[in-house]
Amino acid sequence: NAGVTQTPKFRVLKTGQSMTLLCAQDMNHEYMYWYRQDPGMGLRLIHYSVGEGTTAKGEVPDGYNVSRLKKQNFLLGLESAAPSQTSVYFCASNFRGGGADNEQFFGPGTRLTVL
Amino acid sequence: GENVEQHPSTLSVQEGDSAVIKCTYSDSASNYFPWYKQELGKGPQLIIDIRSNVGEKKDQRIAVTLNKTAKHFSLHITETQPEDSAVYFCAASRPGGGNKLTFGTGTQLKVEL
Question: What tens digit of pLDDT does each residue of B57-72 get?
């Protein structure tokens, strides 16, 4: 199993450009998440999904859109990139349910720079 | 919403010493408290977690303690080794709502030889 994979690993954008980050998981997880990580601020939740076809806003959703058309994929879109969106983006997935199934599995991250 | 504070932001210990990282949370409904380790250039990985019905949990050299009354929980690493050097994050989650985690700001642990 590959676990959680992210594409691309690195990207440089100019202000105003758009891009889509792809997250894929092969663990048949119901829940998926997008976080951004900035120095001194930990990981902050952007959007999440509790199942195919559903999405919800997290703590810092402005400037981002997401889609979950297939259970295994979760896409994060930036329609008009801004320098404030320079960050490392992590995708995570979670089986669903309480008990022992709360662990979130993280991908390797995408480092995005917006000039 | 939930707010998680983590201290210290950096911690340097000698190999073999113990390290302690502390977190506080604000939402009394939170009932799940994981700790993640992030090595350079990688995604965070769960190392230990604890639920609100348990006061302490141990796994070899690492342990987590939880004080629900004071709303704080701590990570203890004993007999530290150079491979323990990493960034550690605490987090908290409440029931329902997609198992969302609120993370602390991280602690950079450096284990010196």
Answer: 999 999 999 999 999 9
